[in-house]
Write a structure and sequence with these properties.
It holds the Pfam family FAD_binding_3. GO terms for molecular function: FAD binding. This is FAD-binding domain-containing protein. The chain is an alpha/beta fold. It is built from eleven helices and 18 strands. Bound molecules: flavin-adenine dinucleotide.
């Protein structure tokens, strides 16, 4: 049957494009359906942490990110009130620096890599309904944008990489395994003339800020506040909020035009059940936490590979695939829980600077196991968490 696939992936950004690329590289017949046009931005800043850069390196895509002009980030400055600490990026594991490409760059690059590996890409097109077959998810129905042509395709597995408002999660009623309560809001824009070689994170009680150097000589500058305070602010308050959080940064961009500012009101985190008969979830559809710890893309790239490996262990469906996808879910949970908890504490903004420093130490420790797990994937003698 022409329109039958091993895997249909709904959503073609960092989680979906990576999953599709890995499955297509392994020879599976894959269809990706993405609602947005190529190169469109999304509501997200884009700092990558070590695990995310490591994935791009392992997949042979880091050179393309470098070629895009995303600068080398060799250190992180942490401002606790007026006190600054610097942590250098440790060269090793094939990585000499971190990178923070714009989503217009990263998502396009990943989807191009999926297409180059043989995945079919249907875009811009929206899935409107899941099809069921023998009591399991068995395919999708939707419509292309522009010429509004209806389509239908079937698959052994449908992967929801369709973000926080996931159609797949809603349709299968994927249960929440964890639900958070903290939510931070973020307002951000892009500015020239800031340092290109470091992330800068600023913490003061009740307000945070960050600088993320990126493509085109610009840096993403963001201010974070508790969600409750966002309701009373407007994007135009950006400069005033930035002056409270990081007066020296506000000063250094005072003369720059503000351009487009984007505001995110915040939403509590969750970990969802991520596999069932004929379906799986990955990326924000499966696991979301407050952006204050800047880890959603890094986690999406990690979990894309854990899911792809699980699918490849049992590509023909049935109970074997269900078991493998549940192993992925359990591995994801083990790698994520400590990170989820500490993100909750930071995003709750109920800390003084002494407590915040302790939260950041926990955060730093929570990143190590995921990097070890990713490095272990290339070591044939090492048992993966997926089987542990
Ligand atoms: C304000 C903010 C700042 C952030 N900053 C950072 C950061 O600095 N670092 C970091 O690592 N993470 C950050 N994140 C988190 C990061 O943006 C997410 O974790 C990441 O986008 C998840 O990727 P994804 O592929 O799972 O989902 P998404 O990026 O949400 O992509 C889902 C895609 O699915 C498509 N789609 C949805 N429904 C359908 C449908 N029915 N049919 C077809 N297509 C569909 C959408 O068009 C979309 O393109 C931030 C998030 C926010 C909100």
């Amino acid at each position: 049957m022409d329109n039958h696939y091993d895997v249909i992936v709904i959503g073609g950004r960092c989680a979906g494009a990576s999953t599709a690329m890995l499955l297509a590289r392994a020879g599976l017949r894959v269809l990706v359906i993405e609602a947005a046009r190529r190169g469109t931005d999304t509501l997200s800043t884009h700092a990558l942490m070590r695990g995310g850069v490591l994935q791009l390196h392992r997949w042979g895509l880091l050179d393309d990110v470098v070629a895009s002009g995303a600068p080398a980030i060799r250190a992180t400055h942490f401002s606790y009130g007026d006190e600054i600490e610097t942590v250098d990026v440790r060269p090793g594991d094939g990585i000499s620096a971190l990178r923070a490409p714009r989503r217009t760059v990263l998502d396009a690059l990943l989807l191009d890599a999926a297409a180059a590996a043989g995945a079919e890409i249907l875009r811009p097109a929206r899935v409107t309904r899941l099809l069921s077959r023998d009591g399991r998810v068995g395919g999708v129905e939707g419509v292309t944008r522009g010429n509004r042509k209806a389509f239908r395709a079937t698959a052994t597995l449908v992967v929801g990489a369709d973000g926080r408002d996931s159609l797949v999660a809603r349709t299968v009623d994927a249960e929440f395994r964890r639900r958070g309560s903290a939510a931070g809001a973020i307002i951000y824009g892009y500015f020239p003339g800031l340092a290109r070689d470091r992330y800068h994170w600023v913490y003061r009680p009740g307000i945070t800020a960050g600088i993320v150097p990126t493509n085109d000589g610009l840096a993403c500058v963001w201010v974070g506040i508790p969600a409750a305070r966002f309701e009373a602010s407007r994007p135009e308050d950006f400069r005033g909020l930035l002056a409270q959080a990081a007066p020296e940064v506000a000063e250094s961009i005072a003369a720059a035009p503000v351009g487009r500012l984007r505001g995110y009101p915040g939403a509590p985190g969750y970990l969802r059940a991520s596999g069932g008969p004929g379906w799986a979830l990955v990326g924000d559809a499966a696991y979301y936490k407050d952006p204050i710890t800047a880890h959603g893309i890094t986690d999406a790239l990690r979990d894309a590979e854990l899911l792809a490996r699980a699918i490849l262990a049992a590509p023909h469906g049935g109970q074997a695939q269900l078991d493998a996808v549940r192993d992925y879910q359990n591995a994801r949970d083990r790698l994520s829980e400590q990170f989820f908890d500490v993100t909750e504490r930071i995003a709750g903004y109920r800390w003084d600077l002494c407590e915040l420093r302790e939260h950041l130490r926990v955060l730093s420790r929570a990143m190590r196991p995921e990097v070890d797990e990713l490095l272990g994937l290339d070591d044939p003698n090492r048992e993966s968490l997926l089987t542990g």
